[in-house]
Automatic annotation (TrEMBL):
Domain of life the protein comes from: Eukaryota
InterPro entries, alphabetized: Beta_Casp (IPR022712), INTS11-like_MBL-fold (IPR041897), MBL (IPR050698), Metallo-B-lactamas (IPR001279), PPR_rpt (IPR002885), RibonucZ/Hydroxyglut_hydro (IPR036866), RMMBL (IPR011108), TPR-like_helical_dom_sf (IPR011990)
UniProt-recorded Gene Ontology molecular function terms: hydrolase activity; RNA endonuclease activity
Keyword Hydrolase in annotation: yes
Polar residues bias: start-end ranges: 1104-1122
UniProt key word Repeat: yes
Protein's UniProt name: Beta-lactamase-like protein
Entry keyword set: Hydrolase, Nucleus, Repeat
Chief location: nucleus
Domain Metallo-beta-lactamase: 640-856
GO cellular component: nucleus
NCBIfam families in the cross-refs: PPR
Length: 1273
């Protein structure tokens, strides 16, 4: 029928009759366009019309374009519209919208933008629908920043944004998880229109995606309060968010509320519910919902089936998993990449290798290539099943399909071959170009287990030659192999080499060697190793002593006890495994307890309760320790990978988690094993605090959270959270382009950012009941902050990077005057005093101007955030004043995105920038902040060697790779060109080599050398503070102690001496790996027991008397001086601070604590017999001696010569404090030991005894006794 219609139209066209009635009129044409006509015939017909100037109706033409773009012949619309425009036809603006949408669909966003710009030329002004199409296209392409720029154009006044505009934009923010931008544009939306249910549902979805469920529920409650008609999308988003955070009750409550509202569940709602239940192991409820889904005639999708299949595999229910796979195939649902992955992984774990292999074949035939995780799973499964050939065949087949194996896959292959003894094949698969430390370690482990120690030595040497440092795992494999073969001399040599390379052995290394020595019956060497373990500061591994002799078990117990007691002042609890203590002999255990209880004066008591050996540990808390592990960050005496761990009153905070830009191997990341040897970082750290978004401060965070497994809180400012993903993703892409191993993925970055808790400036955040932190403005870069931390009365500040001088786009650092125990400050420019900013700017502009005037090109390597904005403002202003036409370029879209964020976070910038933004927004003045009119935002690679001068900002700033290195390699050989380095460059980068001198050649790698003839201009536009700024901050805060980090050793030493000499503040500049411990002067808050308070009420009077000479000085007029007795109350409050787990600290009396512990009170008494000298004593009648008279004579003697103590005559006994003296005969003295060799001339003695507390007083009295002769009658 349609064919006959077109024939009729063709006959009309061939008719020579000129009557208008002979031509198809618009109504006829519309009827044709409304039909399901052939698109090519339509286009042919329109072509005939154009030749006769019979243009179709504008609305009909728009409908035609819409049909063309919606069909699979959409490219025809792109030919039709320009053809009509060239003939003078003026279409409806909606006609352009269809073409714009289709251009975005093809990925040509640039052409879509050009088409919008051409619309006024053809008499069509873009309307709001046009701009909405443009914004929607940018959002779907993932370029939300350009979508925001389009909205800025609309706000200028061309047309008013509507509800669709904001909904589309919010949808883009939602997909990218950008919560901060949503808040910014919420305010703009309320000025233009009122949100609808789609808007609210988009907000809720976004909040749930970023894990802020509380905010999602707040919006949900606001919707119900405003009586907005709810839809199933709102409920689905909240249900999915509840499942992600594990709040099942809230999810089911929403489900019930959804049913009460009589909202039908769609496929998305069911998918969210079923997927969430399966992930949480609630498979039965998921299957019930699946049946309900079928009853409601909602067709399950591939996600639903995959979730249920995965749930059955996790429960090892293979039969039901395959049953659902069969149902899936019957319904004609095709497997996607995730479904294939779940099935293959589950079958491999269940030992169904054959079925997994068949699925892998089907997967590859369907056009899906396995990822490295799935391939590694399959290879490992084949090796475990003993099918080496199948593993190698699979690998070869994937190579034939163009699969590029990475180091993970190759390491898995090598490991499997080594375990099966096929060492030569393993070595053949070893790819040195892609190898990393893991690959080398796997090969070393395989060779060592099979006794090929020559091969191990060869691999070790090669590993060192290519720049990799063997870690403790490589050494452990080598030592274990030698020990198992009984080669203990060689094992000891490797062990010593390990120590020389400053690699700390762990308990596994010691355990392997101890067992090796014991196999040779060499208990002496095993004991020596135990002694060495003690010296290195950690005990032997619990639970590893099964085969040790009793003597060594006893020594294990003793060494462990020493280790515990050595840390008594900072430990609050003791945790020992029952398995460990259960193996100890009773004698060894008793020895441990004796060692512990002998220290009663310090109350470091370890005792057992019950038969399960539960331990309670009382500790005298005497100091507050600050510990910084500066090796992680190279922040001790080096710039790069900042990561400082501070322990303050039992709380451990990691400040920054950065990478080193000068390394491409494992040295780029901190050694996190120094924080926790077990890898349990959640218990080892209280929180992580990030100061700003530079990679040397945040670059290792995704690796630490997603690969190492840290799940605790991470704090940073709002701008840092917004900008950090841009920097991390840009770095990851550069690594990918260079073919380097990805240590983290885009998904890792996304998941990492979900753990971040953003903070505002001067907002006090209570991390837990003891620790609080607060952020202060640091300048440096957008969002940079200093952080104040306080636990109890102990307080500190960690500055991160900061700038005490304001610049063109950021203000100076600001902080309150705080009472601090410790200040940790950066010292990048520890000895540099910069000249004025204006002088530096003049020098920079002069160098750039001279270069472009001579026809050269200027490369400014800089990071996309910070210095780029500072220098862009400077060049923009200079270009305008000098009327220069030389183009200035940004190298990538990252800087464009950065400028967009600077606009949105304007409150963090300098006062001048804020004023410009205010004028733009409220006064409509053309002083837009960060709208660089003379700087082009797209630099194509074809322009690198284009003739003529230009200025290029290229990232990264240290020329460590990326686009700046690519351009440098092309421009460096020309003397006309200039490279200006405006910031600090880390050692090992190209930038650092250029700043260190004027090299003529630079070795990029062993195969690539760069000729350097260009001009090198170094200028300090660094955002770090100089020496004056550091001194000003230290002086302003006046901490009790200061630690310098993030600097170079000689310069730090100079600054340290200056701080100590000028400010009188104790300063430290620890090297990498050093630990600094600083005692706190603060007191511990504790309750006082009743017994302790009663002991304070007992007076302790001390009597003393002044000498006659002293009295004569004060009363010279008196004829006779009289000695006066002075009485003083010298009571001393003595108590013991006891800290029990989970209880408040308490000061107790010693007797009270002894009673609590069930211990006896011990007191040391000393005794001595002093010979008595008298003039009238008859030795023959010593039994008739008048003891009372002699005691009285002694009392008089002591009263005249002893000025301290209360001397009491008790008849036959004399007492001074605890000192007692009585008279005894030679033969009946209870304290004298019979000595036949000693012949004493005296037969009468003073028998003395005293407490050890009065030892000094006692010997003073005895000295008087010895030197005195008593005149007895």
């Amino acid at each position: 029928m349609i064919k006959n219609t077109f024939k009729f139209f063709s006959r009309l066209k061939k008719n020579n009759n000129k009557s208008s009635k002979s031509y198809p009129d618009p109504i006829s044409y519309k009827s044709l366009s409304d039909s399901d006509s052939n698109i090519d015939s339509l286009l042919e017909f329109c072509s005939h019309l154009k030749k006769d100037s019979k243009f179709p109706d504008r609305f009909v033409f728009n409908e035609l374009l819409h049909k063309l773009t919606a069909s699979n012949c959409g490219t025809l619309s792109l030919k039709l519209l320009p053809f009509f425009l060239s003939k003078g036809y003026i279409p409806h603006p909606s006609s352009f919208n269809s073409s714009i949408t289709f251009l975005f669909k093809l990925g040509h966003s640039g052409y879509a933008q050009k088409l919008v710009n051409l619309m006024p030329k053809y008499g069509c002004e873009p309307d709001i629908a046009t701009y909405n199409s443009l914004i929607d296209g940018y959002v779907k392409c993932g370029d939300v920043v350009k979508a925001c720029l389009v909205l800025d154009e609309i706000r200028v006044g061309r047309c008013k944004p509507d509800l669709v505009t904001f909904n589309v934009l919010f949808n883009g923010f939602c997909k990218m998880g950008r919560k901060e931008e949503v808040f910014v544009y919420m305010g703009l939306m309320w000025k233009c229109c009122v949100p609808n249910v789609i808007t609210y549902s988009t907000w809720i979805d976004m909040f749930c995606r970023v894990g802020d469920l509380e905010l999602g529920f707040k919006v949900f409650r606001d919707i119900k309060k405003d009586r907005v008609l709810l839809n199933s999308i709102v409920f689905t988003c909240l249900i999915d968010g509840c499942f992600k955070v594990g709040n099942f009750e809230a999810a089911f409550e929403l489900y019930r509320e959804m049913e009460q509202a009589k909202l039908a569940l769609n496929v998305v709602s069911y998918t969210a519910l079923i997927d969430g239940l399966c992930k949480k192991g609630m498979l039965e409820r998921a299957e019930c919902l699946f049946l309900r889904m079928l009853e409601d005639k909602v067709e399950p999708n591939v996600v639903v089936y995959t979730s249920i299949i995965d749930g059955h595999f996790k429960k090892r229910d293979i039969r039901n998993a395959l049953k659902y796979l069969g149902k899936m195939c019957v319904r004609g649902i095709k497997l996607d990449i995730r479904a294939y992955g779940v099935l293959i992984h589950g079958l491999c774990k269940s030992g169904k290798i054959d079925k997994a292999s068949k699925l892998m074949d089907n997967m590859m035939k369907s056009g899906f290539l396995p990822d490295k995780l799935l391939l590694t799973t399959m290879i490992d499964a084949h090796f475990k099943a003993g099918n080496v050939k199948a593993a190698l065949d699979l690998y070869g087949e994937l190579l034939a399909h163009g699969f590029d194996p990475d180091v993970v896959v190759l390491s898995s292959l090598i490991d499997g071959l080594c375990k099966h003894g096929r060492l030569h094949e393993a070595e053949s698969y070893f790819c040195r170009e892609k190898a990393n430390e893991i690959s080398y370690t796997v090969l070393i482990d395989g060779l060592a287990k099979h006794g090929d120690f020559t091969g191990v030595d060869k691999v070790f040497r090669e590993m060192l030659e290519v720049g990799f440092t063997p870690d403790k795992y490589a050494y452990t494999s080598w030592i274990a192999g030698l020990s198992n073969k009984g080669l203990m001399i060689e094992a000891k040599q490797i062990f010593e080499d390990m120590l020389k390379r400053k690699i700390s052995p762990d308990a596994v290394v010691y355990d392997v060697m101890i067992r090796g020595y014991l196999q040779q019956n060499n208990e002496a060497a095993a004991s020596d190793l135990l002694e060495e373990m003690r010296k290195r500061g950690f005990p032997t591994a619990a639970g590893k002593e099964d085969n040790l002799p009793c003597s060594l078990i006893r020594q294990y117990a003793e060494e462990y006890t020493k280790w515990i007691l050595a840390r008594r002042s900072t430990c609050h609890c003791l945790v020992l495994t029952y398995q460990y203590w259960n193996q100890l002999k009773k004698g060894a255990l008793d020895a441990c307890l004796i060692k512990s209880s002998s220290m009663m004066d310090r109350i470091d008591c370890l005792y057992l309760i019950g038969e399960n050996y539960q331990q309670t540990y009382f500790s005298l808390v005497s100091t507050c320790s600050w510990c910084g592990f500066h090796e992680h960050s190279r922040a001790g005496q080096e710039v790069g990978k900042s990561c400082v761990v501070v322990s303050i009153n039992g709380k451990r905070i990691m400040f920054d988690c950065g990478m080193h830009m000068g390394y491409t191997d494992s040295r780029r990341y901190p050694d996190f094993s120094r924080i926790s040897n077990t890898g349990d970082f959640d218990d080892a750290l209280t929180c992580v605090v990030i100061t700003h978004f530079h990679l040397d401060h945040i670059g290792a965070l995704p690796y630490f959270t997603e690969v190492c497994g840290y799940r605790g809180p991470v704090y940073m400012t709002y701008p840092t959270k917004a900008l950090a993903p841009l920097m991390l993703e840009d770095y990851r892409k550069n690594m990918d382009r260079r073919g380097e191993d990805e240590q983290f993925t885009s998904d890792h970055i996304t998941e990492c950012m979900k753990k971040v808790i953003p903070v505002d400036l001067k907002q006090t955040v209570q991390v837990d009941k003891d620790l609080q932190i607060r952020a202060y403005y640091a300048g440096h870069v957008l969002g940079a902050a200093m952080f104040y931390a306080k636990v109890g009365d102990a307080a500190m500040v960690y500055t991160g990077d900061y700038n005490m001088t304001p610049d063109r786009h950021l203000g100076a650092a600001q902080i309150d005057r705080l009472q601090l125990d410790l200040l940790i400050t950066e010292s990048t420019y520890a000895t540099t005093i910069r000249d004025s900013r204006y002088g530096r700017e003049r020098e920079f502009l002069k160098a750039v101007h001279n270069c472009v005037a001579a026809g050269g090109k200027v490369l400014i390597p800089t990071f996309a955030l910070g210095r780029a904005q500072e220098l862009c403002i400077l060049l923009e202003d200079y270009w305008e004043r000098m009327n220069l036409k030389v183009p200035i370029y940004f190298s990538s879209g990252l800087t464009i995105q950065a400028n967009m964020y600077y606009k949105m976070l304007i409150s963090w910038t300098s006062q001048k920038i804020k004023e410009a933004w205010f004028k733009e927004i409220f006064l409509a003045e053309n002083e837009a902040a960060y709208n660089f009119a003379r700087i082009f935002q797209n630099f194509d690679r074809s322009l690198i060697n284009a003739p003529g001068p230009c200025v290029l900002f290229a990232t990264p700033g240290m020329i460590s790779g990326g686009f700046s290195l690519e351009v440098f390699m092309q421009w460096a050989p020309s003397e006309m060109n200039l490279v200006t380095l405006p910031g600090y460059c880390v050692a090992g980068t190209i930038g650092h080599k250029l700043m260190s001198g004027k090299p003529t050649k630079i070795d990029l790698d062993k195969d690539t050398q760069i000729d350097v003839r260009c001009q090198i201009h170094q200028l300090s536009f660094s955002p770090h503070t100089d020496a004056k700024g550091i001194m000003d901050l230290v002086k302003f805060l006046s901490p009790k102690h200061a630690i310098l980090v993030h600097g170079e050793k000689p310069k730090m030493a100079t600054l340290k001496e200056r701080i100590q000499s000028e400010l009188g503040i104790q300063c430290y500049c620890p090297a990498n790996n050093d630990t600094v411990t600083i005692p706190s002067t603060h007191y511990v808050k504790a309750d006082a027991s009743d017994a302790f308070i009663r002991s304070c009420l007992n007076p302790n009077f001390k009597f003393s008397k002044s000498s006659p000479a002293e009295e004569s000085d004060s009363a010279s007029n008196e004829s006779k001086t009289i000695s006066r007795v002075h009485v003083s109350d010298e009571r001393v409050t003595e108590g013991i601070l006891v800290v029990e787990i989970g209880k408040k600290a308490k000061v107790m009396h010693q007797d009270e604590l002894l009673l609590k512990l069930g211990e006896k009170k011990h007191e040391v008494q000393l005794a001595y017999c002093c010979p008595m000298h008298t003039e009238t004593l008859e030795k023959s009648r010593s039994e008739d001696i008048d003891k009372s008279s002699l005691i009285s004579l002694l009392w008089m003697k002591l009263s005249n010569e002893l000025s301290e103590g209360n001397i009491q005559d008790l008849g036959e006994q004399l007492q001074v404090e605890s000192f007692h003296a009585s008279i005894c005969l030679k033969d009946d003295c209870p304290h004298r030991i019979s000595d036949n060799l000693r012949k004493d001339s005296e037969s009468v003695f003073f028998c003395c005894s005293w407490s050890v507390a009065d030892d000094q007083l006692a010997w003073k009295i005895i000295s008087i006794m010895k030197n005195s002769t008593l005149h007895s009658t």
